[in-house]
Amino acid sequence: MLGIVRQKVLGQSLQKVRPAVSLLRSYSSAAKQMTVREALNSALDEEMSADPKVFLMGEEVGEYQGAYKISKGLLEKYGPERVLDTPITEAGFTGIGVGAAYYGLKPVVEFMTFNFSMQAIDHIINSAAKSNYMSAGQLSVPLVFRGPNGAAAGVGAQHSQCYAAWYASCPGLKVLAPYNSEDSRGLLKAAIRDPDPVIFLENELLYGESFPVSDEVLDSSFCLPIGKAKIEREGKDVTITAFSKMVGYALKAAEILEKDGIDAEVINLRSIRPLDRSTINTSVRKTNRLITVEEGFPQHGVGAEICASVVEESFGYLDAPVERVAGADVPMPYAANLERMAVPQVEDIVRAAKRACYRSVPLAAAA
Amino acid sequence: MYSDMVTLQTMDTIFYEAQRQGRISFYVTTIGEEAINIASAAAVTSDDFVFPQYREPGVLIWRGFTPQEFASQCFGNRADYGKGRQMPIHYGSNKHKYFTVSSTIATQIPQAVGAAYSLKMDKKDACVVTYFGDGGTSEGDFHAGLNFAAVTEAPVIFICRNNGWAISTPTSDQFRSDGIAVRGQAYGVRSIRVDGNDALAMYSAVHTARKMAVNEHRPILIEAVTYRVGHHSTSDDSTKYRPADEIEWWRMARDPVTRFRKWIESNGWWSGEAETQLRSSIRSQLLLAIQMAEKVEKPPVKELFTDVYDDLPSNLREQEKLLRETISRHPQDYPADVPH
Fold it and tell me: Which residues fall in a coiled-coil region (chain B) (predicted)?
């Protein structure tokens, strides 16, 4: 029995690592590789091509090809009217994006990082999120705010915060967090097509990572539903929820746990608001144990909401307390050794899962 | 133009009184700024978009919003286009191209620029007009909006109602620049200062500004100098921070409505009789509108949950169901005038 599980897991982990190998049972042909950057770029390109109302604005998106080269080639293809290089004023260009959306266009507003979105947060919340409600449907805001979120590598406290929990607490917004290239393409297209304002949280360190994509994903009509999580790895002993970069860590943790006889189910949330409570609860009712993983600050984080949801709906099914693995409750330090300790590592997830399974394990990490 | 100015003045008096009588919860008057409101509205077309602050209901009056429509919003009843979601005076009407008032100061400025930029991209023969007070020019959004409008060459008319007061803050505590017009110039926006209480001057300036904005694709800033005769709102008593005789002087000696009336009378187009007739007719229309609006039932319970998103999400559908069940079990705990 374990041998069959191990084979399936091996096949799946090989898919992530060396997709050229013919162990790919789920694909009919050899899958193509695509980086997250290419995924986002192609999604933007296709949506701008399909709908003339879609346009891109932000700092460095045009001539510089994008601060992280996500909008490479778009200025050349669509011209300066549809790829707008803005002056340095997040509050300004967010307000302008909202005005354009009120008028009926579909702006994609890029924040160089979501840390800078704090300059514009009044417009995001008070002008975008609440407008449809306050105007009783007269002012709809089909806007997408996108950019890198959370920790990168060695960028310090003011460039490393995760905003998933902040934005996801606000009714009127939708909040998405893609992990791989399939997520990035499908969710960005869905976000652009959605009539409500969407916060699209990318991750700088994932931009260069390559993932296999099927022909279906490469098709220009490909779209993922907003509000549905994906079970990246099925398991029966403990549920691990994660989003963005932490999905990769959770999958690695699952491989390690596998060796210790713990079969983890890894859920890629994909959508933070609306949260796919049904998938999460169904999983917990199967495994009876839950670990939530996020990079952001622990208090009032995404894990807190997931825990509350499970306690409200599946309390009787829990065999162990829900544990939240989150970033340290400090502003992100710069020094590499300190930074490493301030964000969750694969070992932290492994230890938390073992604790949930009542394996004896020391609580503190060894320095 | 004159009859709309009188309508605005009368509406303000009557609705203010209604708030004092406890019939509506809140009101904001435009006393002293009737010329800015009506003349600027008259000088642009119905194709142009309006991004107001909150002291520009006159623009809606000019565009055809009826006393009944105003009253419905103030009473937050079933006929309110805003479905009872906001405080009184937060009017909004897509069909009149008047973007819903939101309380946040100056946020409409960059929004107006965005909409103007979109108009330009669509190659429409129209512009955007946005209003704000002297206080609003201190906000970062003013800076960003004007800068952006100049860079993107957006067809937008910025009208600053410099009425001397931002609640209790006089302009001497608000800025030390020579008014607002110099700020526009600093950003590369052609600017002009106008006597905001002179309806003809306002009309002339806005009319020319519109031509420039639409034909040359450029932003224009108009600083309309005036005085806020009324209190900031019904939550304010301005005699606490400014002399009562100063208010009286501006109300009587510098009233823009009286000034315009004298001009049309001197041209033989108006008379004392026409005046009495107009005022009494408008007064009864407004009183009737209030009486009717008061009796109309409130928006139904389902409107608590709609419009958060384009489609009603499942969690809100559940909450609505739960609420209805609770109401049917305990009807005595819920207001009788909210239909479910």
Answer: none
Mutate to test the interface with A, among B65, B107, B111 (most CBs of A within 10 A): B111
CA–CA separation, A33 and A30 (whole Å): 10
- Does position A1 have pLDDT exceeding 90, yes or no? no
Q: State the residue for tokens 């026409």.
A: B274
> Is the residue at A22 inside a domain?
no
Q: How confident is the model at residue A362 (pLDDT cuts 50, 70, 90)?
A: low
Share of chain A above pLDDT 90, in %: 87
**Residue at A223 is within a domain:** no
Which of B51, B103, B118, B122 would best serve as a mutation to test chain A binding (most A beta carbons within 10 A)? Answer: B118
Question: What is the per-residue pLDDT across B191-202, written as a single tens digit (0 to 9) for each?
Answer: 999 999 999 999
Question: pTM score, two decimals?
Answer: 0.87
Backbone conformation region of residue A108, classed left if phi is above 0, alpha if psi is from -120 to 50, else beta: beta
- Identify whether A23 is part of a domain: no
Are both A242 and A117 inside the same structural domain?
no
B111 contacts on A by Cβ (under 8 Å): 95-96, 98-99, 102, 127
Average pLDDT, chain B: 96
Q: Which residue of B has its CA nearest to A54?
A: B118
Contacts of A79 in chain B (CB under 8 A): none
| Residues facing A231 on adjacent strands | A267
Tell me what pLDDT residue A367 has.
Answer: 46
Dist CA B30 CA B53 (whole Å):
12
Q: Residue A347 is encoded by which pair of tokens?
A: 């070992």
**Which secondary-structure segment (H or E) carries A346?**
helix A346-356
Domain's final residue, options A199, A218, A237: A218
Task: Tell me whether the omega of the peptide bond preceding residue A274 falls within 30 degrees of 0, making it cis.
Answer: yes
Which domain, by its residues, includes A99?
A: 32-218
Contact A98 B117 (CB under 8 A): no
**3-state SS track over A201-247:** EECHHHCCCEEEECHHHHCCCCCCCCCCCEEEECCCCEEEEECCHHH
Nearest to B221 by CA among B187, B270, B195, B177: B187
Q: Per the CB < 8 Å rule, is B110 touching A96?
A: yes
CATH number at residue A126: 3.40.50.970
Let me know whether A37 and A118 are in one domain.
yes
In a domain, A27, yes or no: no
CB A348 within 8 A of CB A303: no
In whole angstroms, how far apart are CA B274 and each of B2, B10, B198?
11, 15, 22
A90 is catalytic: yes
Give chain A's domain count: 2
* CB count in 10 Å sphere of residue B340: 12
Q: Where are the domains of chain B?
A: 1-295, 301-333
**Angstrom distance (rounded) from CA A190 to CA A184:** 10
B77 and B13 Cβ atoms separated by less than 8 Å: no
Dihedral-angle region of residue A363 (phi above 0 means left; psi in -120 to 50 means alpha; beta otherwise): alpha
Q: How far is B219 from chain A (nearest CA, A)?
A: 14
Give me the catalytic one of A90, A182, A202, A305.
Answer: A90
Q: In this predicted model, what pLDDT tens digit does every residue of A298-314 receive, in sequence order?
A: 999 999 999 999 999 99
Residue appearing with tokens 């003013």 = B142
Residues of B in contact with A122 (CB under 8 A): 104, 107
Residues A46 and A174 in one domain: yes
CATH of the domain at A276: 3.40.50.920
Same-domain check for residues A77 and A153: yes
- Residue that is last in its domain, among A218, A242, A261: A218
Residues of B annotated as catalytic (active site), given as ranges: 17, 103, 232-233
CATH class of the B1-295 domain in this structure: alpha beta
* Chain A residues within an 8 Å CB radius of B51: 99
